Amino acid sequence: MQAHDASPRVATAAGGPRVDMPSPKTAASNNTAEVEPASPEVVARTPAGSDADVLSRAQAGDHHAFAQLYSLHKRRIYSLCLRMVGNVAEAEDLTQEAFLQLHRKIATFRGDSAFSTWLHRLAINVVLMHLRKKGLSVISLDEAMEPTPEEGPGRSFGAPDLSLSGSIDRLALERAISELPAGYRLIFVLHDIEGYEHNEIAAMLECSIGNSKSQLHKARLKLRDAMRTFPRREGRR
Amino acid sequence: MQDPKNMTCEEFQAQMAELIGSGEDVSVHPHVLTCTLCRALLNELETIAEAARQLFPVEDPPDTLWEKLESAIKQEGNQTRG
């Protein structure tokens, strides 16, 4: 499977902020035409027809419509970036890059999937490329979703750690999440933190629902293993 | 195929990801129903997931991000025309 940007193949179910595209559209090839200043906050409050209409106008190069799309989706995209990289400045850069790519490619969106799924996939690719540039071993979504055996979760067999059944050390958990391999972190962030369903994640990552479920389980196991090995801070459980 | 009732913990846990991936509800797996250790493990994993949900409040990016994005779009437009 290639990580690609233009046309996720799998339709998705409802969930998260979405702008559905009821009919495929062929629009102007490049909408880098004259850019009029637009405030997304103001534009988003302006009654301007349905979400599909906003998308259509953005695809045709309407900058105000693009600002409206930005306003609709910025929070989820920024949140995803922030949780993947754990750094505000990097998350802002990645969010900007994701929307810049959206601006370049929006005309190629054909409505084969929900727009939000397509946009998330685009943003995920931006994040994974960034992690690769930072020297991490992620190259594509495929690789992110198929960790090598040595990257797999440690053996979970053993007595449960009773401290985990009570309160959890927030810092230890944050650290454990930040140290997860990117593929596991991605699945964990999308499902357990962002709240996407497995069918939505499967559409974003172009994997099976079963793969999404099993990878999430492995990610949780890996977190548990990591938290068992962290030295506990004094006075905290 | 192993008899689910006679699995050891190690055998069950080795298969857990696959069982979950196949859509099985492992909380009612015959081994889990009779094994406090594996039930506790599943509870721990749920506890971790629940704690993670509360870790990060959802935030908007700063307003300046739109200005930067708009500037980058304009710059690309100028390069395209130039």
Distance between the termini of chain A: 43 Å
- Compute the number of strand runs of chain B: 0
Helix/strand structural class of chain A: mainly alpha
Task: Report the helical percentage of chain B.
Answer: 55-70%
What's the count of strands of chain A?
A: 0
Radius of gyration of chain A, whole Å: 19 Å
The number of domains of chain B: 1
- Report the β-strand fraction of chain A as a percent range: under 5%
Reading the helices and strands of chain B in chain order gives HHHH
Backbone CA Rg of chain B: 25 Å
CATH domain topology of the largest domain in chain A: Rna Polymerase Sigma Factor, Chain: A
Oligomeric state as shown: heterodimer
Describe the global form of chain B. Answer: elongated
**Structural class from helices and strands of chain B?**
mainly alpha
CATH architect. name of the largest domain in chain A? Orthogonal Bundle
The amount of beta strand of chain B, in percent, is: under 5%
- Main sheet record of chain A: none
Low-confidence stretches of chain B: none
Summarize the structure.
The complex is a heterodimer of chains A (237) and B (82). Helix content of chain A is 57%, strand content 0%. Chain A has 237 residues and is mostly helical.
Structural account:
The complex is a heterodimer of chains A (237) and B (82). Chain A has 237 residues and is mainly α. Chain A folds into 2 domains: 40-133, Rna Polymerase Sigma Factor, Chain: A (Orthogonal Bundle), CATH 1.10.1740.10; 141-229, Arc Repressor Mutant, subunit A (Orthogonal Bundle), CATH 1.10.10.10. Chain A is built from 11 helices and no strands. Chain A is elongated. Chain B has 82 residues and is mainly α. Chain B has one domain (4-81). Chain B has 4 helices and no strands. Chain B has helices spanning 9-21, 30-34, 36-53, 64-81. Chain B is elongated, with a radius of gyration of 25 Å. Chains A and B meet through α3, α4, α7, α8 and α9 of A and α1, α3 and α4 of B.
